[in-house]
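To: structure desk
From: M.T.
Subject: fold request, one chain
Message: Could you run this one when you get a chance? Sequence is below, nothing fancy, just the single chain.
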Amino acid sequence: MNINPVAFNLFGKIEIRWYGILIAIGLLVAIALSYYIAKYRKLKADEIINFAPFAIIGGIIGARLLHVLVNISFYSQHPSYIFAYRQGGLAIQGAAIGGIIALIIFARIRKVNFWAFADSIVPGLAIAQAIGRWGNYFNQEAFGRPTSSKIGIYIAPENRPADYMSSEYFHPTFLYESIANFILFGILIFMHYLFKKRTNKYPDGLIFNTYLITYSLYRIFIEYYRIDSSYVGTIKVVYLISGFTIIVALIIANVLINKFNAKKKEQAAAEEEKWEK
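Reply: Done. Structure tokens follow.
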């Protein structure tokens, strides 16, 4: 079965690819979800709309930049391909990094709570990733090792790595990640429900760090099956990025919890002192 990465041609000249369409749909869904989650958590939901253009720009720049950096040996020899992002080659972890940097700057300028807004955004980000991963299906990329199982996906010869030309069916790792992202979305939404029900029981930022840790964990597992990974020496780059992310997120979550608990103790002590007077 031949899969055409081009959805249609605009005016017979401009190719509109499924990859771009799915990313656009994912972004729109993410913005809408983030807006309603912010309203649900009683935040300034309009700031989500204000932040959206900066999130998109930061995400695309970060995604492409990380992809180019980890494949620098190829792009140094083919610099004209650096900006050919419509054909694929966006690192999701780079998109997250670019979006986080954009939110840090935005939060400082607009004087909003970074952690609360980060919590509101990550469920939509998980959904956007789940949708966007299907762009890999149409591009016939980001697949895994050869497999004889029924879940295997056919890859056309022109899209197979040279070492796997004799194989026809491969693990659909993009599908594995898409499913994992949908599950993660459900977990994050439940956490928002739980946090709203138990107001002032948990610190802002915990949902955001749960996203970082959970995504990094299953990305490590899925990357094991990928055959298109970039390496630093003998170690896959994704392992390094994911491992570092897990460590940093655990440290940040611990700091946030400790600060939150210390603040609650201070408030309780102040209330007790007030009643004693």
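Reply (cont.): Strands lie at 6-10, 14-17, 153-154, 169-170, 231-232, 235-236. Let me know if you need anything else for the meeting.
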